[in-house]
Automatic annotation (TrEMBL), chain A:
Positions with biased composition (Polar residues): 23-35
Database matches in InterPro entries: DAD/Ost2
Record field: compositional bias (Low complexity): 1-20
Membrane topology, as annotated: Multi-pass membrane protein
Protein's recorded name: Dolichyl-diphosphooligosaccharide--protein glycosyltransferase subunit OST2
Primary localization class, coarse: endoplasmic reticulum
Oligomeric form and interacting partners: Component of the oligosaccharyltransferase (OST) complex.
GO cellular component, one term: oligosaccharyltransferase complex
Residue stretches in coiled coil: none
Species annotation: Salinomyces thailandicus
TrEMBL record, chain B:
Signal peptide extent: 1-20
Membrane topology: Single-pass type I membrane protein
Localization per record: Endoplasmic reticulum membrane; Membrane
Residue intervals of the OST48 middle domain: 324-464
Pathway(s) the chain acts in: Protein modification; protein glycosylation
CC terms in the record's Gene Ontology section: oligosaccharyltransferase complex
Biological process annotations from GO: protein N-linked glycosylation via asparagine
Organism expressing this protein natively: Salinomyces thailandicus
Predominant subcellular localization, coarse grouping: endoplasmic reticulum
Domain OST48 N-terminal: from-to ranges: 27-290
Protein name (Swiss-Prot/TrEMBL): Dolichyl-diphosphooligosaccharide--protein glycosyltransferase subunit WBP1
Transmembrane segments: 440-463
Family of this protein: Belongs to the DDOST 48 kDa subunit family.
UniProtKB/TrEMBL annotation, chain C:
Listed pathway(s): Protein modification; protein glycosylation
Source taxonomy: Eukaryota, Fungi, Dikarya, Ascomycota, Pezizomycotina
Cellular component annotations (GO), alphabetically ordered: oligosaccharyltransferase complex
Record's signal peptide: none
Listed EC numbers: 2.4.99.18
Organism the protein comes from: Salinomyces thailandicus
Pfam families noted in UniProt: STT3, STT3-PglB_core
Keyword NAD: no
Family per similarity comment: Belongs to the STT3 family.
Single GO MF annotation: dolichyl-diphosphooligosaccharide-protein glycotransferase activity
Biased composition (Basic residues): 754-772
Protein name: Dolichyl-diphosphooligosaccharide--protein glycosyltransferase subunit STT3
Amino acid sequence: MPPKKAQPSPSAIPASAAKPTHAISTASSQPTKTPNKPVAATTATPSIRNAQDIQQIGTAVWNNYVEKTAQRTKLLDAFMAFLIVVAGLQFLYCLLAGNYPFNAFLSGFSATIGQFVLTASLRMQTNPENQAEFETISHERAFADFVFGSMILHFFCVNFIN
Amino acid sequence: MEMRLLLSLLLAGLVSTVAALSAQGSKLLVVLEDESEKSRYSQFWTDLEDRGFQLTYRTPKDPQLSLFRHGEPAYSHLLLLPPGKGTKGLGPNLTPNLLVDFISAGSNVLMALSGEQSIPSAVSSLLLEFDISLPPDRNSMVVDHFNYDSSSAKESHDVLLLPGKNAGGSKKGVADILSVDGILALPHAVGAVLGNASPLLNSIIKAPATAYTYNPKEEQEGVEDVFATGDQLSLVTAFQARNSARFTLLGSVEALQDAWFDTTVQHSAPGSKSEQAANRAFAQKLTGWTFKELGVVKAGPVTHFLNEGSQQNTSDLTTLSDINPSIYRINTEVHYTIELSTWSVDHWVPFTPPASDAVQLEFSMLSPFHRLNLAPTTTPANPNASLFTATFTLPDQHGIFNFFVEYRRPYLTNIEEKRTVTVRHFAHDEYPRSFVIMAAYPWITGIWTTVAGFVGFCALWLYSRPEKERVELKVKEAGGR
Amino acid sequence: MAASTTAPTASTASSSPMAFFLQGETGRNTRGLLRLIILCTIAAAAVASRLFSVIRFESIIHEFDPWFNFRATKYLVNHGFYAFWDWFDDRTWHPLGRVTGGTLYPGLMVTSGSIYHLLRFLTLPVDIRNICVLLAPACSGLTAFASYLFTSEMSDSPSAGLLAAIFMGIAPGYISRSVAGSYDNEAIAIFLLVFTFYLWIKAVKVGSIMWGALTALFYGYMVSAWGGYVFITNLLPLHAFVLICMGRFSPRLYVSYTTWYALGTLASMQIPFVGFLPIRSSDHMAALGVFGLTQLVGAAEYLRSQLPSKQFQTVIRSAVLLIFVVAFGGLVLLTVSGVVAPWSGRFYSLWDTGYAKIHIPIIASVSEHQPTAWPAFFFDLNMLIWLFPAGVYMCFRKLKDEQVFIVIYAVLASYFAGVMVRLMLTLTPVVCVAAAMALSQILDTFLVASAPTENDADTKQANGTPAGANGSIADKLSSALPDTLRSTKSPLVGIYSYLSKSLITGAITSYLLLFVLHCTWVTSNAYSSPSVVLASRLPDGSQHIIDDYREAYYWLRQNTEPTAKVMSWWDYGYQIGGMADRPTLVDNNTWNNTHIATVGKAMSSREEVSYPIMKQHEVDYVLVVFGGLLGYSGDDINKFLWMVRIAEGIWPDEVKERDFFTQRGEYRVDDQATPTMRNSLMYKMSYYNYNSLFPAGQAMDRVRGSKLPADGPQLSTVEEAFTSENWIIRIYKVKDFDNLGRNHQDATAFEKGNKRKKTSAKRRGARVLRVD
């Protein structure tokens, strides 16, 4: 596949910030997709290596991921991927149709982004590799925190969109 | 309704007891130099008394003469006949300051001068305050070699004959109040020059284009450096102060005398017939205007209300629930009504503005945002007033606004009705909600998709928990080993 | 873990009864109790030292801005929250009005409103005024507590937190804005600031969503309370950014930062006044940028853990850098194209102190926006100012994530405090924390450290006890003591001797006592004046209250129509609104520069020019402050040049500052004053009839120390309505149009009996004809 610039116009920071993550997580989380998906995504970086190399690395990453990741983390990744898709759709719609009720756009988009961020946090906290970083936080606690944070987020968003 | 009936009854009772024809009051003070002069104006006095005025005669030196009583004006009206020869002023009780105060207190003054008698300096300086200048030469009078009465002033040409229909000016849009039929005779008139700046001044009768001021005592043939000529000379001048108090300067006191009420005059122009002078009718009109019988307009109740929702296009104001609110919101439609009536002989009648003139409403904050002509209608609720209405949309600007009706016209009392209202911004719950706006639907969907995803995720998470812990345990064990 | 059961035995082993309370389980409880008691005492001290003004004067709202807050609170209490939210204030900025509900930070009013309703609910009917007066001291107690928590996160020494609490409690830098009656946004904002920082540190340390969310919530509260929230908005991202640059990116940072940003931004957008600012204005862009960066770095870190290849890592790193640069470029582009609002003017003045003076005189005219004079630092912080660098240095020595925060905070706040007097307030917390850390280090070193032999024994014992966060002080100290110090340990050096201990302790104690003395003195002398009521000393030493302001405001309240519009310089707008309850043209919420310039023009022009302006704005009364009789220097003549400057900014052709200076460039009020000065409405109103107080030709202006011209100014368009006892406030009534249509000069001349000499003048030149 030819290198594809997945980067949208730099009109808004969240987009450019979210996009690479988008690429990465789709690469790492959608089990049904073929391994050449991450190839397309990672070539967003300066294309100094040939396609074969990238394909190899992609396969390695994918295998690594499938082997090492726990079921629960995969669930998280699926949810994150879902959120990315929702956010991407909203952003696309905003670019196409304009952001007329600006508060609605903001709350819709930031609800998704916020949820994504919280889920990513949960993923980090529950990742056994990060156990050392989060000594004091058990998984139950992490999940409870996650729910707490999400509730606040949803409240704000719904309030903002009225 | 009963209240209204009661009120109107009460009002009717009041009107009948007052019984004056002036809209303001009936007490008239006449200041004349000498009691003997009184008889020369007997018809004039009779006319005034017939119209309900209570005349009080005083001489300037009368110690009882006082314009004020307990700080309030003692009379509604004042008639000043020219002071006698040799007097410097009008006496200590009629100083210019007192007269200005008298006017500022709302009373009306008719001042008559005569070219026969020299004008005291106090009078000149008083008139200067009204922006009226008299000739510096205190004995001059207006002469006209083309418009004089050939029967009485064949030589001196100092009895001016002027058409009565021009009185009050015949300009477009100005109420025709003072004009009379026939011809006016103004003997020995003093001509005054009016300042250019004051909008309060109006010349009721201007001198003809051929007139000029002339001092008969100077015995000169030609006149150099004449004070004023032509229609710059005002023979009868009307001044209406901001508080609608009226001051009239009549250049020729003789015109009020019996002798000139029923004399016949003949215009100097060849071929004109001799006819009865219309001085009596004019005197009635002039005093009528000065003493607030004519040209009196008053504003009745002002109402404004929101012309939206249940109140839209309401004709019967009594059914309105929220009348004259102190606050409106921007971009709403508002209905404004003002009642105006005018005084006619002894009662108020609906006021109609002169042709090609309109009462205007300004909706202003610092500067007008709207300036609208008000449409006159009559109302069954009040047969004595006409209703001026306008319906308009408030500007898209919040602030403190005034409904301002300012109606200042020559010879009509000033109407100045200001109602201050606040125009506020949209309240937080008055914007369209997101779920009303179609364009917001994608994002509402976005939020709820996220929330639904979150709930689903939580359910899945909790459901798969036991398995997780097993995995976790395994990992731990693996780590422990 | 089993060691915890042995702790009681260890404590019982010690012999003295004192030791029983100070060691082990009981000791922990005792210490906890002691700490609580000390904290309560500190809070009480903090509250008590702020009550000087109530005792000296009375329970009264101070200064200017608090009067507006008080009025808004009363409105909130009387009309309910929703009416407050939608409040359109038609009694200020006449005739523009002000969308007050949408242009204020409601946190303060809502706080005191809820306290009021809570007390009502508890059947404690307290006057809302007293709640407002005492809110600031109450919050200062909370601030002391918050700074205890904050410092405890920074330092292992328990004394550091307590010291920070007491420093925070009585530091004049903070007291200046929180004495009783100083009912201002800062009153609760500083508490929220410190507490938000505490939560942030906690979040970074623990890496929990909950702490992050709490940070966001308190950040939201802070946003609702004070415009200074921008400081947090930029400080936290900066902290995160520096950590990332130091290679200290961790999942904890990711969790806490992203949680805070996502929730905090949404929370801040709930405040109507802030609205879309967080994504529209440049002030907030740093936070957004760092948010994006965190995402990038987080993703890169994740990939790195998945990929062993070194080359690939460099690719990733360069990609991150590239995206960052592109995003930054995009931001610049957006700012240039105007989608994102450029930095606000107030912000520019932070970087370039001369900026405001040139471009925005309205900002420069506020005294609290002036750069700080250096003695102010000593005045406000006293000995803390020299402990502060030491504390920052301590942070460098043990540079964990939270210490990095302190360092950044210290650097930024010091700079800002140097630029603007007002921002001394944000500096004070970090100074207190850093100083407390330094001082506690000294105290711990000299007080607790015993001779090495004992120390060993202690250490042994301590090792037996649980070495958690609550371990014995000695234990902590041994870990806290740096190696360098330990290497110099020798029994001969006097550090363990009682002499050196007592010497140092004595010195520190005396410093502390001096500090307390200084704080008390500053508080009672400099910061407890309500400025509404002035105090002076009579020759016999007794206090004399000068109450002109309230006298005049109550005169307005009693003697004028409720809708009478009062024009004054904007400084007094809030007070007139609050105390006199009369509509004003301009007030301390300086949102409309043109309107203020209009007032400035009316004040600095001739009467004939001013009168139409006043009439257009429906002004009924004009209020000026004149200190000439009393020597009160904060009067309008001294502020006059600002009025001129601000008016000149809008009408450069009509008002010129140069015209108010004499040929030699002096600003004078005596007979050397320029004609423009002497004909200005402000000058005339200030000195009108002032001569009559003195023997002929002896009139003196005591503020400017100059002798006034023998002939006082004459006024025609306004008339004196009221002058207060000491002539501080003078109120003039604007005359209506003259009834006879003359101009006011002529009318006044006529009333004085001067006859007009018009005709003679008119004869010269061309004749003016009347046209109609």
